[in-house]
Fold this sequence. Notes:
The protein has 110 residues and is an alpha/beta fold. It has one domain (2-107): Glutaredoxin (3-Layer(aba) Sandwich), CATH 3.40.30. It is built from four helices and five strands; from the N terminus they run βαβαβαββα. It has a five-stranded mixed beta sheet, with helices on one face. Helix 2 (35-51) crosses helix 4 (98-107). It is globular, with a radius of gyration of 13 Å.
Amino acid sequence: MQVHSEKDLSVEAFNELVSDENQLVFVDFYATWCEPCKFLDEILEELAPRVAPTTRFVKLDIDEHPALQKEFTIMSVPTLMIYRKGEQVWRMAGFGLAKEMEEIILKFKI
């Protein structure tokens, strides 16, 4: 799972990050102080091998990326998004079980 460590990623750089033509890009906006985000990490670690190589996971800490938090109106964490060919096709605040999330990913599979 790719944790994007560059501070305050620009919107343009984010758009480039999610514009993969060959994979879905699953974006997890999180915070290090967020307890539910820590539970989500375990779920995503379990899920990633089941949807590889068609899905790439990207984690963005809202405290390190305030411009993106503002641009995408992230009001709570975790906030999850799926991008297909650069377009957001799904968004959710919170998270579900690994099986439910796998079904959502497969729905949008390229």
